[in-house]
Specification:
heterotrimer, A mainly alpha (about 90), B mainly alpha (about 120), C mainly alpha (about 240), A: about 90 residues, mainly alpha, 3 helices, about 90% helix, about 0% strand, elongated, B: about 120 residues, about 65% helix
């Protein structure tokens, strides 16, 4: 177990804890993206470049984008609903 | 200490499930599900690891040899990543519609779903 | 069930799961061991078919039927998400107002990085058989590259670069082409998705037989899927509005 492998494993566990304990979903999109980067680092240390490329594209770019879009849509829908209820 | 790599994978799954259980927003629960799914990727890739072995890609610097990490579990992990990305997209679309119909994204307030 | 009761129930269940997992992990071959029987079979098989990237060989040659299933999952869930996000009966799509200003530096970086990302994505797709990468990774990079236009702040520019009909066709054609290559393998080599094209010299781009073709096909399909999926989410956020009654 080399030092960099231990560091990568500890970072992964730490980043996962941070993602779960972040309560605001809008902030979670950012921490999820960082968690994806940490996973990419772990996969590269474990000699898995294909998996790292996949995780980079999906977990760091596409999924946080989808989360942000969903959150913005929900916020806008709730604002529309509040505006209609007040009328 | 060689057990710790597998234990990190198990920890990821459990902390993801813990996040889902105490979540107050549907999107928060979906992100915690993504964390739990990444625990399975870590487990698969750590199973395939061999100390001192290289990546399973040959080229001008690496002649074909057997001293590489396991490529089959990496292929399985690739499929895993694709499937969990699509599941996350479907769940997010569902939660958008739930928020539109019921006006809330808090799982505890979604009374209509109560069994 | 109250939150506290739910948490207690989870702690009990999670504790049992953790104990079972540790018991199982103790019995596994140690981390970093040399005992990998499937690697000993997969690597010679990939080399004999001239594929330098063994993971691509497993995905597109040895276990291509799994990738076929994965493509079907991708296309089915894209259809599901698009169906879920269609404007409902009381809603219409309005043209979005101006999206506001972005920093000049953001726009410059977006415009500079977009052609680079597209070329990189195409490279990852086409070299899938000989370097790390493949259809899926390259398709995701391509889709992200196209959406850099959104980062530059111009949704109309993104819409012009993204004719939806073309991407939907690309997604469907990709999935159909995968099945067609499989059927051709049935004719050419007697087994569905068999590698029947000639394999050239090891390490060249055209040396891998059907792995190259399947990688390109999957790249096209994933690009189409990702763009259609993201477009459904974008339209919900930007243009779908409930009809004022």
């Amino acid at each position: 177990m080399t030092a960099i492998l231990v560091l990568a494993l500890v970072l992964t566990a730490g980043a996962a804890t941070v993602v779960v304990l972040t309560d605001a979903p809008a902030r979670q999109a950012v921490t999820l993206s960082a968690f994806g980067l940490v996973l990419v680092l772990l996969f590269m240390v474990l000699q898995a470049p294909d998996v790292a490329l996949s995780e980079l594209g999906v977990g760091t770019a596409i999924v946080p984008l989808l989360v942000m879009l969903a959150l913005n849509t929900m916020r806008k829908d709730r604002a529309d609903r509040d505006r209609r209820d007040r009328r | 200490m060689s057990l710790s790599a597998y234990l990190v994978a198990g920890y990821l799954v459990l902390i993801g499930c813990y996040g889902i259980v105490r979540s107050r927003h549907l999107v928060h629960a979906i992100v915690c599900l993504a964390v739990a799914q990444s625990g399975t990727y870590v487990l698969l890739v750590t199973i395939g690891y061999q100390k001192g072995a290289r990546a399973p890609v040959f080229g001008s610097t690496t002649r074909p040899n057997r001293h590489v990490v396991d490529p089959v579990v990496q292929a399985m992990t690739l499929t895993d990543i694709v499937v969990s990305a699509t599941v996350t997209a479907l769940l997010l679309a569902l939660s958008i519609q739930i928020n539109k119909r019921h006006g809330t994204a808090d799982p505890d307030e979604l009374v209509a779903l109560r069994g | 069930m109250t939150r506290r009761a739910r948490l207690l129930l989870f702690l009990c269940g999670g504790g049992v799961l953790a104990a079972l997992f540790v018991a199982g992990a103790v019995g596994m071959p140690g981390f970093g061991s040399t005992h990998h029987p499937d690697r000993d079979l997969a690597v010679p098989a990939a080399v004999s078919h001239g594929t330098a990237n063994v993971v691509s060989a497993v995905n597109f040659d040895q276990r291509a039927i799994d990738t076929f299933g994965e493509e079907t999952i991708l296309i089915a869930s894209t259809i599901g998400a698009v169906a879920l996000l269609r404007p409902a009966r009381g809603e219409t799509e309005r043209h979005p107002p101006d999206l506001g200003r972005t920093l000049e530096s953001t726009r410059l970086i977006g415009y500079l990085l977009m052609p680079l990302t597209l070329v990189l994505g195409a490279d990852v797709v086409l070299h899938g058989g000989i370097t790390p990468g493949g259809g899926f990774q390259g398709g995701v990079v391509l889709a992200t590259g196209i959406h850099l236009l959104y980062v530059t702040g111009s949704y109309p520019a993104l819409e012009r670069f993204r004719p939806m009909g073309a991407y939907r066709t690309a997604e469907a054609l990709g999935a159909a082409a995968f099945a067609a290559v499989g059927a051709a393998g049935l004719i050419g080599s007697g087994s569905f998705l068999g590698n029947f094209l000639p394999t050239g010299s090891f390490g060249q781009i055209l040396s891998t037989g059907t792995v190259q073709v399947l990688s390109a096909v999957v790249g096209v399909e994933v690009l189409g899927s990702a763009v259609v999926l993201l477009a459904a989410f974008f339209e919900q956020e930007i243009s779908v509005r409930k009809n004022e009654s």
